[in-house]
Amino acid sequence: MSRKKEALTLSVPPGTKEKLEAIARRLNIFWGKSPSPSGLVVAIAQQELRVGSEAFNLNEQQIKALRQATKLLIDAGQIQEAEIINTLLLNQGDLEAPLRQVLLQQQTRSIQAWRDRIDELIANRQPFRLLYHNSQRQDLEYTVRYAEVMFYEKRFYLQTWCEETADALATDPDLPEVAHNRCLRFDRIRDIQPTSGIWRGEFDSIKVYLHLKGWLANAYEPKEADIENVVLGDIRQVVRRVVNPFWLIWEVFKYRAECEIVAPDSVRDRIKQELRTLCQLYDLEV
User: Fold this and answer.
1) Is residue 3 domain-resident?
2) Residue 96 in 3-state DSSP?
3) pLDDT in tens, 152-205
4) What is the enclosing helix (H) or strand (E) of 37?
5) What's the superkingdom here (predicted)?
6) How far apart are the first and last CA of the chain?
C-alpha cells in the first residue's frame, strides 16, 4: 500500500525550480532518475538537512581544534586571524556558558590592543604599570621600566624589567641578578597605565658559559645574545648574555649531553636540581 501524501503548492520566482533541482542533485536527492525539489523540502522538514545558520554547526572536537588554532595564531602574533576564529566560534559553536563568556571577554579586550599600546610605550621610552593575571590565577602588579617583545619557542612574549622582585626571588632565590626580569604573556595582561620615572634602556643579565660538544659543536648557529664563540679543541665555548635563565635551561635540555652549562654555579646548580627531580620521577639513583 502506498503511503498517503499531502500536496503542497509552491509559488516561486522564475528559475527557482532549476536552482532547487541543482541543490537536490548535489545532495543526491532524486525521484527516479531526476533530482527532486520535493524530496529536498521533505529532507529539510525532517531535519535531515540543516539550512541557514544551522547549516554549519561545530561539534566538541572541532571547537577544541579551533581553540588550539586561536592560541597558536596569538603566539605567532597573528591577532586579527585569531579574532576571526573567535567570532566563528561564537557564531557557529554550541558553546558552554563559561567558554562563551571567555571568548566574549577576549573580543572586548583585544590582545592586539595591548600589543599596540606596549609598542607605543616602548617607542616613547615611557615606564608603565601593568596588571597581570599569572598561570596560578594570581593578579600581580608590576612597574615596568624597560621592555622588549621577544620570541621564545614559537610564541611572542613581553620581556620586562620590573621594580618588583618578591615573587621572582620566592621562585628563584639563587638568581638575584635577574630577579627584576619578567617574561609575560600578552593574553594575561589585564591593564596598562603609564607612570612616572626613568626608562632604564636595558635588562639585567648574567654571563653564562656553555660547552657545546659532539655534532652540536659544528652545527651550532650563533645567537644575537652570544658574547663569545670560540673553538677549544673538540669543544665550542659560547658565552651568552642571559636575561631569562628559564629559556636557556629549556634550550640546554633539548640538546641533552651535547650542551653543558659550566658557569656560573647558580645556573649550573639550577639545572642540576632539574635533573635530580627527573631522576626521582623515574626512580633513578643519582
Assistant:
1) no
2) coil
3) 877 789 999 999 999 888 888 888 999 999 999 888 888 899 999 999 989 999
4) helix 37-45
5) Bacteria
6) 84
- Give the amino acid at 16: T
Nearest C-alpha neighbor of 124 from the set 139, 144, 101, 108? 144
The torsion angles phi and psi of 182, rounded to 5 degrees, stand at: -130, 145
| Residue 182 Rama label (left phi>0; alpha psi -120 to 50; beta) | beta
Q: Using the structure block, give the residue that is written with the C-alpha cell 640546554.
A: 252
Burial label for 93, CB within 10 Å (0-12, 13-18, 19+), is: buried
State pLDDT tens for residues 207-244. 999 999 989 888 888 888 899 999 988 899 999 999 99
Q: Which residues contact 52 (CB under 8 A, 6 or more apart)?
A: none
- Copy the grid coordinates of residue 73: 595564531
CB 184 within 8 A of CB 128: no
Domain limits for position 266: 206-281
Closest CA to 100 of 111, 109, 110, 87: 87
Q: Please check whether residue 192 is in contact with residue 129, taking contact to mean a CB–CB distance below 8 angstroms.
A: yes
The answer to whether residues 197 and 282 touch, using CB atoms and an 8 Å cutoff, is no
Region 250-277: mean pLDDT is 88
SS3 at position 138:
coil
pLDDT score, position 108: 47
Percent of the chain beyond pLDDT 70? 80
Helix (H) or strand (E) holding 80: helix 79-92
| Residue 87 sits in the same domain as residue 74 | yes
Count structural domains, the chain.
4
In a domain, 129, yes or no: yes
In the 8-state DSSP scheme, what is residue 160? E
Per DSSP, the residues of 162-186 read ES--HHHHHH-TT-GGGTTEEEE-G
Q: Which residue has the cell 614559537?
A: 154
